[in-house]
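Page 37, continued from 36.
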């Protein structure tokens, strides 16, 4: 779903999917946002508190009162500081929902595919887990979304050990131990490259799904990666966590993104990428897709082969042009990559074809 008001957007989507089906009101609902560190959501690092507030309001209106927010920030930060800085302390007080700092939790050891993993006890006690990650690229694993967000459900020592084990297999295993029941991806503002934010990209979208493997496969496409390039997605699929074939999935879009909006306070990296763009009233999801795709081309060493600027935006509707155009609005450009908004993966493949790889 596209829009600018995460609180009402999340309620609309949950209504549309007829949440929560057969879950009885006394059950414990766990909400796992991504508060990897103490930085507000506008930096692209953490889950927008307005989205979580909308989710809690929706649940409480349906009679669910047994709700907890659970998180453990990364090794370098205190979860309590992240709860405060990211706006969750306020949510906790306003809706009377407890915050659980998983850094202070006990753990249970579980086995998976030859690995022994320590998992926080409180997350295993949840009856229904709502995983609320942020749509972000990641310097090591390429993306971080639903599957990797569960790394905030293990003790700090285990987080360090995950890195020595290569991240992918333990992340996949973790998802076969902790079952996610619903994923709500905060794609309002995500990040271009790093899980800690710093290069925020506004996409004004929320993605909801029940299968974290499928959601992550779709997220990979939105960020410009082939899902097979993200090892832990395929591993989780093989372990039976979910199915990753986006082509077989039913994807419903609610609201077209129609309000032109530029990235506010773009980082130097984004300003650099924007030199390849000729924009005229582009919607945020469209512009964000293009920024992500240009970064993926840069990472592949192909950006410098792009010798002309890419047209994007509603201002090009009906106008002919002699350059490359991205999105339906530029369909009169000589060379055109379709979509409204296009996915970054489609733009990457389209530009690669146009520049002859
Ligand atoms: S193609 Fe045009 S209308 Fe569609 S998302 Fe892009 S800029 Fe907006």
């Amino acid at each position: 779903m596209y829009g600018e008001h995460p609180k009402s957007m999340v309620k609309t989507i949950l209504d549309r999917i007829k949440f929560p089906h057969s879950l009885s009101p006394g059950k414990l609902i766990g909400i796992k946002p991504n508060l990897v560190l103490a930085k507000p959501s506008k930096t692209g690092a953490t889950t927008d508190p307005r989205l979580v507030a909308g989710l809690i309001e929706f649940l409480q209106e349906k009679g669910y009162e047994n709700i907890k927010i659970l998180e453990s920030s990364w090794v370098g930060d205190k979860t309590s500081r992240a709860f405060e800085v990211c706006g969750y302390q306020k949510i906790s007080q306003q809706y009377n929902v407890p915050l659980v700092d998983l850094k202070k939790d006990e753990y249970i050891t579980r086995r998976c595919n030859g690995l022994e993993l320590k998992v926080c006890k409180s997350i295993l006690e949840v009856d229904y887990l709502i995983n609320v990650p942020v749509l972000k690229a990641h310097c090591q694993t390429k993306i971080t979304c639903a599957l990797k967000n569960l790394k905030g459900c293990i003790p700090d020592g285990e987080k360090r050990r995950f890195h020595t084990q290569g991240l992918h297999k333990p992340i996949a295993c973790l998802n076969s131990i902790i079952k996610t029941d619903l994923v709500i991806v905060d794609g309002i503002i995500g990040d271009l490259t790093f899980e800690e934010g710093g290069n925020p990209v506004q996409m004004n979208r929320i993605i909801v799904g029940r299968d974290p493997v499928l959601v992550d496969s779709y997220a990979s496409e939105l960020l410009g990666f082939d899902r097979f390039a993200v090892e832990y997605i395929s591993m989780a699929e093989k372990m039976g966590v979910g199915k990753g074939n986006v082509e077989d999935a039913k994807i419903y879009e609610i609201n077209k993104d129609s309000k032109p909006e530029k990235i506010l306070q773009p980082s130097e990296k984004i300003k650099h990428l924007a030199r390849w763009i000729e924009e005229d009233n582009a919607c945020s999801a469209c512009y964000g897709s293009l920024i992500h795709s240009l970064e993926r081309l840069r990472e592949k060493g192909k950006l410098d082969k792009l010798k002309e600027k890419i047209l994007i935006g509603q201002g090009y509707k009906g106008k002919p042009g002699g350059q490359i155009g991205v999105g339906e609005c530029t369909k009169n450009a000589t060379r055109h990559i379709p979509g409204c908004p296009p996915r970054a993966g489609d733009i990457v493949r389209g530009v690669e074809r146009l520049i002859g790889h």
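The pocket of iron/sulfur cluster is lined by residues 257, 282-283, 285-286, 313-314, 327-329, 340-341 (CB under 6 Å). Flag for discussion at group meeting. The mean pLDDT is 93.
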